[in-house]
Amino acid sequence: MKLNLDRQSTTPLVQQLSDGLCQWISAQRLRPGTRLPSIRHLVREQGVSQSCAIEAYDRLVSQGWLEARHGVGFFVAERRGQASFAEEPAWGEGAEGRWRLFSDEQENLLRLGCGWLPANWRQSEEIALAIRQVSRGADQDLFGYGPPLGLTALRQQVRKRLALLGIHVQPEQILATQGASQALDLLVRTLLKPGDTVLVERPGYYNLYNLLRLHGVRMLEVPRTPQGPDLDVLATMLREHRPRYLFVNSLYQNPTGTSLSPRSAQRLLELAGEHDLRIIEDDIYADFQEGPATRLATLDSQQRVIYLASFSKTLSSSLRVGYLVADAGLVARLAEVKMVTGIGASRFAEQVVAQLLGSGVYRKSVQRLRVRLAEHMASALRLLEANGWEVFAEPYGGMFVWTRYPGANFSHLQALAQDAGVLLSPGSAFDPQGRDSDWLRINVAYARDVRAQAFFQAVRQASSWRPPAS
């Protein structure tokens, strides 16, 4: 058994050992009842202390990976749902199926298609330092409500960052939110009513679909191309249905990873002007891009674009801090709805993010993330090509690749994924109507994991899935 333990890592050795054992069990496809090496053997082979080995095994017992037999040793346990996974979709029609990626019950599976970065990629020490600094500050930041527009210090930092992107706004045009999700919710509550019609991308962000459906809003689907929304389809829908709003990702679209081309962006704004359309630009992956990029808010000269972004993807999913940019009148309306529905946001979280932005820690952190993601993107694309997968388009950054294996359907892939200890995100989750799809979203930050490697190799070995030669 070869486990890669890094003594220089900030991740505790016992956590590395337990994670490594999980990956090894999955990669070796060990069946329930298989005996694992003894504590003494593990200590000698991995060069760890006895207490470290004991705690690692104890963690795996508590997590359901192993069972301990007194006086005999540790054995691979029968995990709940293991035998019936093929009949239980990873992302089904019901709410329980849709949210399995977030469930603690799935913590032992590799979430190959999740929408966040690995925890050990985050700047935990820097975030902890900022939290301590805020905790030692004014009592108001610990116990007080946040102001309707958000903390002035945070909005000042956001304004500086927007100027670097070519988006020049006044402070009263910025509204701090609890992540991009609250920004979308406030917009839907304020601008739309049941029966209204909007345009959405297909494939696209599943939770936006759920939000619109919750509010009784009708969705018209615009296919996503490698250059952006299909402009011919969009023009036809604008003429025939006169929708009020379009929701779009410009950079590193979720789930395809594609970005809006300059030509498509210019034409999109022209169509918006011709048909009195407003565009809601979700730029949640903005900070994964370094250098020039095509954003609608940068090109907008008619104030047709409402822009939103978030720090949750780059800093922490638990620090729910995002922001929205629009004309001052709309921002004031949105702030009122924000106070009515949530009595503001977390003043403490906003103060922590402002501290990280103001100190320069955030800037250095995202620079490191960009380099790391670029390396993993190149590695993932090579891996997919080597194993016979088809890619929708090659992203030039971000986290996602939209891919499929010729001739395979999701139930086939899901069965092999379970054997490898992998949880997939099927294409149906990113369809407004939940229609079956043979496409998958892959998060490149997880593609080097041994469980992901085992999954891709297993798919390739299933040669009977390949379509017959023409």
From TrEMBL:
This is PLP-dependent aminotransferase family protein. Pfam families: Aminotran_1_2, GntR. InterPro entries: Aminotransferase_I/II_large, HTH_trans_reg/aminotransferase, PyrdxlP-dep_Trfase, PyrdxlP-dep_Trfase_major, PyrdxlP-dep_Trfase_small, Tscrpt_reg_HTH_GntR, WH-like_DNA-bd_sf, WH_DNA-bd_sf. In the C-terminal section; belongs to the class-I pyridoxal-phosphate-dependent aminotransferase family. GO terms for molecular function: transaminase activity. Coiled coil: none annotated. Keywords: Aminotransferase, DNA-binding, Pyridoxal phosphate, Transcription, Transcription regulation, Transferase. Residues 11-79 form the HTH gntR-type domain. CDD domains: AAT_like, WHTH_GntR.
